[in-house]
């Protein structure tokens, strides 16, 4: 009998555990139903005299930021963000009336990634209230076309970021120095460019497509580098040298 009860208890616990893990993958379960606020309603949560509370929105999601009263309350450095969705200003730092807008269509994909980092910050630090009806969500709290476009830009930005991180790991930046007497020097070490690795590599000039600048990168294998048209040796520097003098033209 005792064995049977134990087995039942165990299977119930396992079922609960599975249920919990499925739920936590879907994100936290809201304690109160999400509300859809109008812009006007949101503006009543400015934290000042006669206000209903202290909220702000980012990408159409509303957060209760009362915990951060010193930042967002009257007299706080970021009070101008209270009671509204000023998504654009999180990236531009333009806190003028024109800059405090939720129109983020001017942002590049990488800037959209940075904006989502702010959104993640608010999810981590503050309580979600719901959505603000307008640019990003409709009255039933469903995403609008504008939000779907921002999400597409986010995906593009994440792709670009992953690509540039992979390039940074493959071709880390060189160390460099310049002095009036000796001129410039670039060299590779196993920690250059902030990438800690098991190889030091040899310096090469990297010409990035779409960018006019040339930068010095460390290349692990000088032989395979010969086949890459974006890489070039430094003038007067032996192909296997780990340090090169930079001759100005
Ligand atoms: C794009 C420009 C910027 C934006 C959008 C921005 C936004 C913010 C926000 C929203 C907070 C409050 C975070 C919270 O809820 O805890 C904050 C805090 C803070 N920011 Fe900025 N900020 C910007 C630039 C700067 C600059 C340039 C400085 C310094 C020169 C600065 C210094 C601070 C400091 C010291 C805090 C408070 C940290 C604390 O007491 O916890 N911010 N910022």
UniProtKB/TrEMBL annotation:
Keyword vocabulary terms for this entry: Signal
Signal peptide: 1-24
Cellular component GO terms held in the UniProt record: endomembrane system; membrane
Top-rank taxon: Eukaryota
Pfam families for the chain: Cyt-b5
Gene3D superfamilies, sorted: Cytochrome b5-like heme/steroid binding domain
All copies of domain Cytochrome b5 heme-binding, residue ranges: 37-133
Known function: Heme-binding protein which promotes neuronal but not astrocyte differentiation.
Stated family: Belongs to the cytochrome b5 family. MAPR subfamily.
Protein name: Neuferricin
